[in-house]
Amino acid sequence: MKLAFLSAFRSKLPIRDRIGDWIFPPRGPETGPVTLGQRRVYILPTRGGLAYGVTLLLMLVGSINYNLSLGFILTFLLGGMGIVSMLHTWRNLAHVALRSGKSRPVFAGEYARFPVGVRNPGRVSRASLAIQLNGQNATYFDVAADTESTVETAMPAAKRGLMAPGRFRIFTTYPLGFFYAWSNLDLDLSCLVYPKPEPGNVPLPPAQAASGEGGASGTGEDDFAGLRTYHPGDSPRRIAWKAAARSDTFLTKQFSGTAAAQLWLDFRDIPDILGLEAKLSRLARWVIESEAGGLRFGLRLPNLELEPAAGTAHRDRCLQALALFQPARR
Amino acid sequence: MNATAALTPVNLAAILISLALVGAPHTSHLPVWIPVFAGLVLLTRFYLGYRGKPLPNRWLLLAAALVCVAGVAFSYRTLYGRDVGVALLTVMVALKLMEMSAARDTMVVVLLAYFLVITNFFYSQTIPTALYMLLVVWIITATMIGLQHRAAKARPADMLRHSALLILQAVPVMLVLFVLFPRVQGPLWGLPQINVTTKTGLSDTMSPGDVSVLSLSDEVAFRVLFETPPEKPSRLYWRGPVLNEFDGQTWHPGLSLTVNTLEFEALGPRLRYAVTLEPHERRWLFAIDMPAAVPAGAFLTSDYQMRSRKQVRERLRYEMESVPLYRIGQYAKNWDLTSALRLPAKVSPRARALAETWKQQSANSQEILTRALNMFREQPFIYTLAPPPLGDDPVDEFLFTSRSGFCEHYASSFTFLMRAAGIPARVVTGYLGGEINPLDGYLVVRQSEAHAWTEVWLVGEGWVRIDPTAAVSPLRVEAGLAAAVPESERNPLLGGDRFDWIKQARFAWDAVANSWNQWVLGYNPERQSRFLSQMGFELATWQNMVIVLMVSSGVIVMVLASALFLRLVRQRREPVQRLYQKFCNAMARRGAPRRASEGPRDFAARVSLQFPEIRDSVQRLSALYVALRYGGKNGDMELLREFRDAVRSFG
User: Fold this and answer.
1) Which terminal Cβ of chain B has fewer Cβ within 10 Å, N or C?
2) DSSP character for A217?
3) B181 contacts in A (CB within 8 Å)?
4) C-alpha span between B313 and B315 (Å, rounded)
């Protein structure tokens, strides 16, 4: 306990969080909806609230000095209002339930967006709640009684990979701004960040003839070569619909003449001097352009090979591989 | 962060309206240029905000602030004191508006607005002021709420509703704090500045016309609560300033000494009562002739005046005892009597001559007295609120020429005649009568009841009160001023039969104003400890008060918190479901609890088998429930009533 206390105070978090962490140590990522029970909502006065307190103190002293009975009444009424506003601020946050939504992958340099579903199960509407990822601008939102709102918080995605912002905070100062009620949660938010595609004019690597096809002379796209089972990402135009009608599975027509589009995007083709990230950036750019051009392409990474295919699903698979690529340690 | 977000026009307008409302009452006492300046700043700020134009730069604002401070210094000739403080605050809030560009700066302005509310109470603490300020606080708080709406724009109606809710919920805490917060008698520093306004009320001199002017004023002089009400409270003489020196025109107080004990002989029972005196900026206190006790902070003088040690600047409540039937001053000091005989030389020769004749014709003082009163009674003297103005020699002119006057004319000339005839006499001013408010039992004495009479000193009897006005107009003493003056001179506020409803309304308003004065404005340390001991606090020390205060406000906050929390978690249940649950509970008591898997029809079937004797009514109830809940008949009031009756039959 003593150690927890010390470590809580040595960290660089704001004092509010340090106190909170000390009383209720962070419990690690939680899955599923998290309801903010009474014990998870902390509250402290804001700077405005302290200024209000000082104002009230001045008003009290003035009332005593000038024997202002109505001054006493006003001071006490405003004091009571301060206390009541504390309850309202706390209630505005208590008992909301939060769950993480699914983030759409983004490219590095873009904003990663983390949707959070905030459900208000009670009979009172919540106004001006805010969600804040560490160090980011808060996103304000309202949740009407007995409804759920989805709030998206954004954070610049600097690096490729699986971005996990970790703990975030939900807070409110409503209705008067004198108190700040908050709760820190770790909902295991994550967002896949693709490498930033290399900008500028980047020509695709030369296409190679598909190995084992021989001369490949005179063969065109229309030379039917056979059927294979359908893979996600195959173009619908190539599905053998007649064959599919007869069997239970989709079959994709294979053509022998697609050599021109048989493209390998190979990590090793890019000079090492560029560095790992730049190489991945170029690959990302190639993946995007190849898919946009309707080409069949495969991806070769030092530890991974994705067979040539076409379509957006294939593209996304490739980009994911680039995003999560870890070079072998030596 | 949205804190730096620009102000929305609605929020800006709300702030400006709040400030305009809180500043409006100050316009009556600030130098004219300040409200004009502040008003212009408000309008300019709204224009700039509405059009999205930039605010003036800092140096310009600083220069404007310096000019304003100089202006205030010039207007008040000082930069110290309460009024100057209010003026500076007003000007600075106006300038702060010009600097308020982002939502972040608004907190300061709103807090200043709350603070400006309290400055209004320096000048007025009446019920209308209180209501107006409640309105202002409501609007300022709504403004605060609007500023906190960050996600969606707040509608003004919602802001006002929420603000009203906060204020209402704060009222219990306010009440507890008001009653129990240990009061300290101010001032903590310096002397509160006095209001320089002249108060209506008796003065320490009396010239012809002084009292009759007062009699047109409806203002309350003081209120009295009797322990046991006297039979005719309207016939009580309230003793005020005693005037002993006459210069031919005006009566002055003359010299009087402070005495420690008063010698008097009570001839009747004592009256106990409490007086709540309105502030009159003078030192004298009023008591029924003759005061038999002296409240704390007051002393008596040799001519039986009760005086406060401090000027009465605030409403003052004091407990008094008086003896309406008394004998005083049988053994008056010589110097006392000689001063009560002194007259200016060469003034009013005709009155002197008349007194001289009376003296020669009479055997004793009593006879002279009778002759004088008979003169007022028998000769055509008129009692009027509007006597003709008198010249250089008011006594002679009144006695022999105009012969119409108000009580001060009669008291003045009568005292003059007595002195001229060798009887020590002096003028006593004060109030006569008053009105019992049937609603709260308080006797209200107004300025219009101001009166003047004479005290003469008779051998063996001492100082005796003689009211010459009674000789002229017995009605004044018997039935009050309204009955005594001619009908043409009456005004509605003086009362009278024709204005009965006005009188009733006035009684009602006065009772409210009096409770306000007694319980709200007059709730001082002394009143607090008295009230708390009445409520059963044996030891109303501040430590005990703080403990009770903590406990009771804690209880209030807990109750409020749990009420708010319940609203948060409790789901609303339809009445139909609630009634059906009651029926299920009743069945469970009979030994047939509904299983979780059972629909209403299955349940009814099982219950019918188990208890054939209630089969029909269970089936009917079940059919009603299904119709109401699933049959789209939810809004059918007739059906709902039938269903409710069916449920009730199972108790």
Assistant:
1) C
2) T
3) 72, 76
4) 7
User: B-contacting residues of A 165-204, CB under 8 Å?
Assistant: 173-177
Catalytic status, residue B392: no
Are the Cβ atoms of A124 and B118 closer than 8 angstroms? no
- Whether B1 and A83 lie within 8 Å, measured CB to CB: no
- Which residue from B minimizes the CA distance to A129? B151
Residue B378 confidence (pLDDT): 87
d(C-alpha B25, C-alpha B28), whole Å = 6
CA angle B52, B53, B57 (to 5 degrees): 135
Residue B290 lies in a domain: yes
Cβ <8 Å between B118 and A80: no
- A74 touches B: beta carbon within 8 Å: yes
Residue B198 resides in a domain: no
- Give A171's Cβ-side CA count (13 Å radius): 25
Q: Give the C-alpha separation, A303 to B555, whole Å.
A: 68
pLDDT value at B344 more than 80:
yes
Structural domain contains residue A199: no
Q: Do A180 and A88 lie in a common domain? A: yes
- Is A115 contained in some domain? yes
* Contact (Cβ atoms closer than 8 angstroms) between residue B609 and residue B595: no
Query: Is B393 an annotated catalytic residue?
Result: no
Per the annotation, the verdict on B407 as an active-site residue is yes
Q: What is the pLDDT at residue A218?
A: 39
Partners of B568 on chain A (C-beta within 8 Å) are 91, 94-95, 122-124
Q: Is 60 exceeded by the pLDDT of residue A217?
A: no
- Rounded CA-CA distance A289/B343 in Å is 123
Residue B185 falls inside a structural domain: no
pLDDT digits (tens, 9 = 90+) for B53-81: 888 888 999 999 999 999 999 998 888 88
Element (H, E) at B138: helix B127-148
Q: In what order do the strands lie in the sheet with A161-163?
A: A106-107, A191-194, A161-163
Of B82, B117, B150, nearest to A74 by CB-CB distance is: B117
- Co-location of A40 and A188 in the same domain: yes
Global pTM reads 0.75
Farthest-apart Cα atoms in chain A, separation: 108
Burial of A11 (0-12, 13-18, 19+ CB in 10 A): exposed
Asked if A164 and A302 sit in the same domain, the reply is no
Q: How far apart are CA A239 and CA A233, in angstroms?
A: 11
B149 touching chain A per CB within 8 A: yes
Across the interface, do B141 and A81 touch by the CB < 8 Å criterion? yes
Residue A9 lies in a domain: no
**Residue A263 within a domain:** yes
Is residue B25 within 8 A of residue B120, CB to CB? The reply is yes
Overall domain count for chain A: 2
pLDDT at B260: 74
Do A176 and A267 reside in the same domain of the chain?
A: no
Residue A84 with chain B: CB contacts under 8 Å: 166, 169-170, 173, 560
Whether the CB-CB separation of B31 and B87 falls below 8 Å is answered with: yes
B115 to chain A, any CB pair closer than 8 A? The answer is: yes
Q: Do both A120 and A265 map to the same domain?
A: no
Q: Are residues B325 and B437 in the same domain?
A: yes
Distance of alpha carbon B145 from alpha carbon B135, whole angstroms:
15
Question: Is pLDDT above 60 for A215?
Answer: no
Residues 165-184 of B with CB under 8 A from A: 166-167, 169-174, 177-178, 181, 183-184
Do residues A48 and A54 touch, judged by C-beta distance below 8 A? no
pLDDT above 50 (res B651)? yes
Contact call for B118 and A55, based on CB within 8 A? no
Domain shared by B46 and B119, yes or no? yes
Both B141 and B225 in one domain: the answer is no
A110, amino acid identity: E
Cβ partners under 8 Å of residue A65, min gap 6:
B186, B187, B188, B189, B190, B192
